[in-house]
Amino acid sequence: MRRRRRSRSRAQGLVEFALVLPVFLLILFGIFDAGRLIVTYNGIANSARSGARVAIVNQSTAGTTTCDTTSATAWSTGCAIASGAGANVEEADVIVTYRDPTDSAACPTLKIGCLAVVEVSGQFDALTPIIGQIIGPIELTSTTKIPLERVCSNPTPAPLAHC
């Protein structure tokens, strides 16, 4: 009689484990995907900050993917692309505009005090198929606004730019 009770309790434990394991794994992979979402958003936000940092001192419309503001080839979009490489940021994902100090309209003439506005967007896709089907792709956007510190005397595309 004792042997029957032991085999039943073992079978009961196996059934409970089989019922709990999928839920546990879904929660575990959900935590993993949530961490990846946070890292992706931080990459996009850092990309917007880096692009704005270059845009406030060099208003070139083309250049290289460098964030070195002492280089005449520094370009805000290129810097945003370089900083957002982990988040797969591409040129089409970066929008650089210059707004007046009140942020109510475009800045007609670039001058110190106008706002450099850099908006970077990206997409997050969950790795876990079940979670990916539930939440789908998530659009992430980050915008950074910083006042101009220096106006580029010749905001032409690099290598001709001399700021």
Description:
There is one protein chain. The protein has 163 residues and is α+β, with helices and mostly antiparallel strands. The protein has one domain (2-147). Helix content is 42%, strand content 16%. It has 3 helices and 3 strands, in the order H-H-E-E-H-E. It has helices at residues 2-55, 76-83, 129-135, and strands spanning 94-99, 115-124, 138-147. It has a 3-stranded antiparallel β-sheet with strand order 1-2-3. Helix 1 runs antiparallel to helix 2 (76-83). The longest helix is centred in the N-terminal third of the chain and has 54 residues, at 2-55. The protein is elongated and about 85 Å long. The protein starts with a helix and ends in a 16-residue tail after the last strand. The model has no long low-confidence stretch (mean pLDDT 85).
Short overview:
It is built from 3 helices and 3 strands.
What is this structure's SSE topology?
Elements: H1 2-55, H2 76-83, E1 94-99, E2 115-124, H3 129-135, E3 138-147
Antiparallel strand pairs: 1-2, 2-3
Helix pairs in contact: 1-2
